[in-house]
């Protein structure tokens, strides 16, 4: 894999620098849902076509970005809510990712992609550095990191790693997810340990190939806040991996639940909150932006007590 | 789950009828790659922007659809190759799916989606019946079936099943994939049997909830042609599930390798060939459409020897 290691700053170091600069590990998830949009945004765009819905999702997302950009290091758009608006939604997603980058935010595209060989390459090139066809060099999603599903095995993840390392991007591999039924397969015991330990072990191998100066590598793990014991177990298995921790806030995970994800210096995990921030208000609330700002600051305070205590 | 069962024709029966009508189980995969396009299509559109590349992918796909529509029951566009062109590529994908439907073909959207709760619903509604927002009822991809990854567990698959059954669509769950490294996790032995048997068993439970008149259900399995022993094992575990069998042709699977996927009456599996059909010619071949037609007929003949022998 040494040919994959290039000069671009390591994603792990870029993430560590961003977390240090903002003084928080909070990641804001952008999961726009029509029924949770502010009434003013719904009224301005309307739900006449998928394109108008997509523009409403874009406006909500861009306005949230303006609020949270001074406060947090990273945002995580959820691809599904943009894809449900078809091509117009993906144009909105592209603009949201571009705007986040312009505001100095790191971006994690949460699309849980998975495939093999040249198909995996196509997903990865689109997510990261972009498409190279003859003279055309064109970014598509241009995200800093992508979530991926490893069920297909090592050779299905390697094209994603190769593409990510070409210019300092990262991956978060699903290890132990935040949903109630996550254990159905992930907890099955194989060779004396649960499946998610096997996936974590593979993540460790990939991650150690390219450690940054901060001591972490560029292939991280998705581990849900809703299962604190498993979170602590995966941290033991993966001392050098960044964690992306969903399930904080609306899904029920608390700051105490995520404490085990962090290294003593407060690095090593980013904790995502989506609905707890972008849908923390009633649709008719006129001062919804103030509510988003307050919810962001509250989440930062909650997390800070955890990571320093 | 009984609330999910509606009046629309069962996907399993629609697929059985289509296979019987065309007399073959061949599925043509649409995985457009720039370097494999006919020179005339490349020259007409050029690779100036992602939009021109997307239009080239669309032209190749539409012309292949015209050739194969009289010959095969089903086509499988690979989402990744359209997504790599960004929003313009997804517009092309939408048109390809629409055109396939107009030609009477069934469509499997191969995007291996996976997520939880309302996020899974968003992917599923987009794939199948479409988005419902206030007065808006709008199809997005409008595919007959979708490939999904079950690593996240039962509650992450159920939103896909619910959305599919609302109007007679189907799923193909990744069980044993066709790549060389598929076994890294899929073959791990848990409770005395490999992980892919556990996933197959869950597919069996979901599938038996909604069997059609043909004896098969609407939640099928993806099982690679490149692992014939595993294919035979999954058939034993899932006598009532449709299989989507990739890996035939370019990936090395032969007609003999896929024989075990079929029920004695020749139903129960569809066998995908992508590059073996849509990239069976040299880019400078002027009669590439004749080559595509010939390759399709050859694949049909090879498969027919298997399913009747």
Morphology call of chain A: globular
Rg calc of chain A: 19 Å
Using the coordinates shown, work out and report the CATH topology of chain A: TIM Barrel
- Show the largest interface: A-B, 68 and 68 residues
Q: What structural class results from the helix and strand content of chain A?
A: alpha/beta
Percent range for β-strand residues of chain A: 15-25%
* Full CATH superfamily name of chain A: Aldolase class I
How would you spell out the order of helices and strands of chain A?
HEHHEHHEHEEEHEHEEHEHEHEHH
Q: Average the pLDDT over all residues of chain A and give the rounded result.
A: 95
Number of helices of chain A: 13
CATH class of chain A: Alpha Beta
**Strand order of the biggest β-sheet of chain A:** 1-2-3-6-7-10-11-12
Total number of beta strands of chain A:
12
User: Describe the biggest sheet of chain A?
Assistant: 8 strands, parallel, barrel
N-C termini distance of chain A: 39 Å
Helix content of chain A: 40-55%
Low-confidence stretches of chain A: 1-7
Oligomer: homodimer
- In the CATH hierarchy, the architecture of chain A is Alpha-Beta Barrel
Total individual domains of chain A: 1
